[in-house]
Amino acid sequence: MSNEKEIPYKIYLEESEMPKQWYNVRADMKNKPAPLLNPATKQPMSAADLAPVFCDELIKQELDDTTPFFDIPEEIQHYYKTYRPSPLMRAYHLEKALGTPAKIYYKFEGNNTSGSHKLNSALAQAYYAKQQGLKGVTTETGAGQWGTALSMACSFFGLDCKVYMVKVSYEQKPFRREVMRTYGASVTPSPSMETEVGRKILAEHPGTTGSLGCAISEAVEKATTTEGYRYVLGSVLNQVLLHQSVIGLESKIALDKYGIKPDIIIGCAGGGSNLGGLISPFMGEKLRGEADYRIIAVEPASCPSFTRGKFAYDFCDTGMVCPLAKMYTLGSGFIPAPNHAGGLRYHGMSTTLSQLYHDGYMEATSVKQTDVFEAAEQFARTEGILPAPESSHAIRVAIDEALKCKETGEEKTILFGLTGTGYFDMFAYEKFHDGKMSDYIPTDEELAESISKLPEVE
Ligand SMILES: *Cc1c(COP(=O)(O)O)cnc(C)c1O
Question: For residue range 374-420, what is the model confidence (pLDDT) as tens digits?
Fold first, then answer.
């Protein structure tokens, strides 16, 4: 073990030490994630089935369960170098405030203008779309981080970017929208009159403020009916976990430099991309029997896919147009309570993480949003960074684990993913500060109702 005094507040890597390949954890899994199924035939989706929707190179990555490493194209490496390596921080101030013997590290991904880790995959997806000679891409965005990251990436590679933004966010987060437009994206509130599915939904529900599921359906329709366009997605898919492995690879290189081995690795889980990326090299060691780590996924108590969902085939979207994925799900019709402000609202979970969780390689826990914001505030006041509500789920559990160490006197090493900053979430912080934030935990009956509507597959 190295002398504690030698460990800096920020562990940076030299550019020359940055990863040049992404790591595909599926290559080391004995039980591979179940394949995506065609919703009509219930047969595994082939590359040809996926080609009208996704970019060719990304389909290859999506379907490849055996190749452990993929070269990061040089142009992507060049853009990574403009905001990476992201700092690996030692939370000395937080440790001191908690009075814990635990050593807490966090990998901070909010250090770019889009404010989250999503840029790591946006750059890759825009690059491959450009390579294929496409004109543009379409996507949906809820809170706006993915739309912002994709807009940036598209502006770098000279691609057209069309974002369907859930109408309620479009109206409540005008600044997010303007950031996207600054990078040249066109942003349409969803549901819109531009697509058949949008017009249909508006006719049926005139005053609707939209949903992620509806925005996905619009984005997919636009991509498949416009020459030279494809659809891209910012989480859940295997390709996204692959690109996000850069987070874990950098963390591992930095920790290894100082001989640090984490005991516990913690990340928030929405669709699973940041967590899947952070844990990937550590999980690889675990799968190969070379090392052991406790790995914890943290989700909101109001949207508890891992902890209360069912491991089964389900639709990825509310419109039921996308492929079926075998994952921990609450049912594609599940919508978290309207008072839920903390993000991570997706009903399902990455198929890779679902399989790993099912096989006992990781744990999951859920936390209430008022406890999440309390942790966010404690973190901001000690470490200085204003965390995104999503990231603060991981902070909550890191603090709880550090407090357990205080009781037992154990000097555990904790690593967590700090996925982004919360500047566009000040309405949620305001609610918390004003004491107007409440916790809603769905009842067993509610979940059973939504889970009972899963499609018949096996
Ligand atoms: C999108 C997002 C998440 C959740 O998505 P995952 O795919 O589960 O990583 C977490 N934190 C931030 C800041 C995000 O923008």
Answer: 999 999 999 999 999 999 999 999 999 999 999 999 999 999 999 99
Q: Could you read off the pLDDT of 296-327 as tens digits, one per residue?
A: 999 999 999 999 999 999 998 776 778 999 99
CA of 279 to the centre of ligand 1 (A): 14
Helices (H), 258-411: 273-287, 305-308, 351-358, 369-383, 389-408
Neighbours of 266 (CB within 10 A): 29
Which residue is closest in CA terms to ligand 1's atom 4?
A: 270
Are 418 and 117 in contact by the 8 Å Cβ rule? The answer is: no
CA dist 20 and 107 (Å) reads 19
| Spatial distance between the Cα atoms of 204 and 184, rounded to a whole number of angstroms | 32
Whole-number Å distance, alpha carbon 20 to ligand 1 midpoint, is 23
Angle at 13 between CA 12 and CA 17, to 5 degrees: 175
Structure tokens at 168: 């309620």
Q: Are 258 and 1 in contact (CB under 8 A)?
A: no
- Rounded CA gap, 234 and 125, in Å? 9
Nearest alpha-carbon partner for 53 in 320, 242, 323, 326: 323
Quick one: residue 260, left, alpha or beta (phi over 0 = left, psi -120 to 50 = alpha)?
A: beta
Give the residue from 207, 150, 144, 74 showing the smallest Cα distance to 388.
144
* Amino acid letter for position 223: A
Spatial contact of 357 and 329, defined as CB atoms under 8 Å apart: no
- The model scores a pTM over 0.85: yes
| Residues lining ligand 1, Cβ inside 6 A | 116, 118, 145, 235, 268-274, 344, 388, 390-391, 419-420
The DSSP call for residue 410 is -
Could you tell me where the DSSP H helices lie in 183-317?
Answer: 196-204, 212-225, 238-257, 273-287, 305-308
